[in-house]
Each structure stands twice: as structure tokens, then as C-alpha cells.
Amino acid sequence: MSKNVWLICKYASPEKYFFGTRHFYLAEEWVKNGHDVTVFTSNASHLTDKLPVFEGSRMEENIAGVRTIWLKVLKTRKSSSVQRILSWIHFEWAVLYTSKQGIPKPDVVIASSLSILSIISGYLLSRRYKARFILEIRDIWPLSAMQLGGFSRRNPFIWILGTLEKFGYRKADLVVGTMPNLIEHVREVEPYFKECVCIPQGIKRESLGYGVPLDDAYVSNTFTQDTFKVAYAGTINPNNPIETLLAAVAGLGTDAKVEAYILGSGSMLDTYKEKYRDFGNIHFIAPIPKKLVNNFLRHVDLCFDAIDSEIARFGLSRNKWIDYMNAGKPIVCSYSGFQSMINEADCGSFVPFGNVELLAKEILRYQRMSFEEREKMGTRAIAYLKEQRCFDKLARDYEQFF
Q: I need a labelling partner for 188 at 20 to 30 A (CA). Which of 85, 210, 262, 368 fits?
């Protein structure tokens, strides 16, 4: 049965302007399935300045059949600032008071964090139009701010966000999380929630196996021949603690013929470069366009990730893991949280976070595997994405709750 769906997310982004977010990929699939979908988003993000610029307070655009309402709100340059919070508030105000003329009355209103303040606009609009209210959690706030930012639970701002989070869990007809074990957190915060399900991160079916080839000269200048290559691709900062990999590879020495390739940039890059400058088996590679990353990873033997956070006990749905799996490579992850994806696809392994010795042993175990064994793991990874994580399937799973 066709539904009118309103989706509210300050950071929803189509590929047309920046990188595509799950909101637009899901919305495009819902339109294909006969639903009318409106996305309320903003042209302000601390991640990019490539979003549309327009006169007035709003711009309406049709993107692949999705009615997109761009709202002009306060811009911010930093992820942690008072200005960013003011931008959140501005967005919710704009969502509530922008004209809804010409937009079909919603049957379903989805408020997707971040910003967690979208609980307010989502709930009020769902009540105004007597629509079903779905709260989507992609980042657990204020717990993330407490864990990563060091804020106290007694901080007034944290208390306000915590109260809002509890309100959202109680008032939502359904809580959707990208994390597989989010229900444990929801129960801790609000025992009287109605229902919680996991609709994880995904990939466009057209993107399976896709990647623009690397230039031959780039390959020959970047990768050493006849070594076992372990890669990390992503941001290099305290939230992505890769030093376990660096220490493990450095400790193995050049005789082991194991090399680490760190692709990316971030606040910790210069620190790591200085600390490991004398290790010839550790290579720091400048960022490349995202369309080239898939083929970069195809030139390595093993992919690496690391997560250290209390939030990990609720599980993760990492886009990074999807990128690694789509490259057809096995994955080793330094991680002590709730396990998912990698173990489900049987395409890699977890080692306790921060244990350099066990990580080194695990890397050597993969090195001893035959090429064919590792290829089979990569094949299973791609099959898992194809069967479980394509957005057309996730959209069908999601719309069962409309």
C-alpha cells in the first residue's frame, strides 16, 4: 500500500552534491516501490561546502523522484562548537515553520539523527498530521558526546539531550537503529519504548564491485612487490585508533615481509608519521578520490579497522566495513564490542582492542593462508553484501513498518 513519507535529517545528502547518505538511497527505493517521499534537509554541514546555495529560506528540488526540501540554516565549520548546536536548533525551527503547501500529508514521519533535536520536529509534525512517528538512531547521543567528548552526565546540555532522547524513545511508534544491538541501549534509557528494530547501513546494488582503476604508474610507485600488505583507509584521528596496527607491523620487522598502508588524513597523521618515520614497512598514503578507493584496496591482502568505545557494546554498522567487503578483501578488526557483519559474512576476524601481540599473530595467520583461501573470504564478503546489505532489500525491510 502506497504511503506518504516525510524524512527529516539535517545531514541527508544526495550524491549529486556531496556523498550520498542512506536517507536518499532508501528514499529512492521507496519511490520505486510506489511511495511518495519528501526529505527535509539543510544546506549546512561541517563536512562540506558543496551543498546547494540559493536565495531565500528554502529550495525545493526533485532528485530521482524524491521531493527534496533544502532549508537554509546557520552554517558551521567545526564538529564541536556552540555554533553547530545553534545550527541544529535553526534547522528544527525551519522544518516546523517552512510551508508544507503542495506536499502530500504524511502517513509516516521519520526523524533521523544526527541531529537528535529532530525528535522535536518529527514528533510535533507526526502529531499535527496524525502520522506514524519513526525515530531513526544512527549515532547514539548524548552517549557519543560523553564518550568521545569527555562530557559529564551532569553537564546541563548533556542532561537536556538525555531527557530528549528518553522522550523520543517513549513517544516513537518505532525506533530504528543502524546498530544491531541498539535495543540494549534503548531498554536502559527508556524501558517503556514500543518497538526497536535494526535496519543497518547498506550499499547501492549498482556499486557492488564498482571502482575506477588506478593508474599503472600510481600502483608501481605506491605498492612494494612481494610483501603481505595490510591497509587502513579512512580518517586518522583518536576516534579511529590505528596505533595497534602500526605497533604490530613495526614489531614484526622487515624480515616478516608485512607492510602497513595507511590511506587518509586526519589530526593524528603527523604524530604517527613522526613516531614511525624510521620503519620502512609502514607507508602513509595521501587521500585519493573515493571512487578510486575500491581499487586501491584490491591491491592489498588484508584490511584493518579499530574501534575503542563503550558504545561498541551496542554493535556497529560501519560503512568502512562495507567498503572493505566490497573490495573483496578479508578484514581483521581490533575491537572488543558486539560483533556483527564480519563474523556473519565469515570474511575476517576480531581481536581484542589494543592487543598488539594478538593482532600481530592474526596478521601472520592471514599471511600464511593461501591466496585462494583469502579470495574465498572476499567472495563471501561480496555475497553477504549482495544478499543482506543492498538498499533495495533494506528499503523493503524498512517499509514493512510504515
A: 85
Q: Detail the DSSP E strand segments found in 138-281.
A: 174-177, 196-198, 228-233, 258-263
DSSP labels, 52-66: ---SSSEEEEEETTE
> Residue 80 — very low, low, confident or very high, per pLDDT cuts 50/70/90?
low
- Distance, in Å, from the CA atom of 218 to the CA atom of 208, rounded to the nearest integer, reads 24
Single residue among 173, 199, 225 that ends a domain in this structure: 199
Residue 60 covered by a domain: yes
What residues make up the domain containing 102?
A: 4-199
141, 173: one domain:
yes
What does the alpha-carbon distance between residue 221 and residue 254 come to, in Å, rounded to a whole number? 19
pLDDT at 109 over 90: yes
Distance (Å, whole) CA 265 – CA 133: 39
Q: Which residues contact 205 (CB under 8 A, 6 or more apart)?
A: 386, 390, 391, 392
Summarised one tens digit per residue, pLDDT across range 322-367 is: 999 999 999 999 999 999 999 999 999 999 999 999 999 999 999 9
Task: Specify the 3-state DSSP secondary structure of 252.
Answer: helix
Number of domains in the chain: 2
Residue 398, SS3? helix
30 closest CA partner among 60, 8, 1: 1
Residue 79 banded pLDDT, cuts 50, 70, 90: low
Phi, psi values for residue 63, rounded to 5°: -120, 105
Helix (H) or strand (E) holding 37: strand 36-42
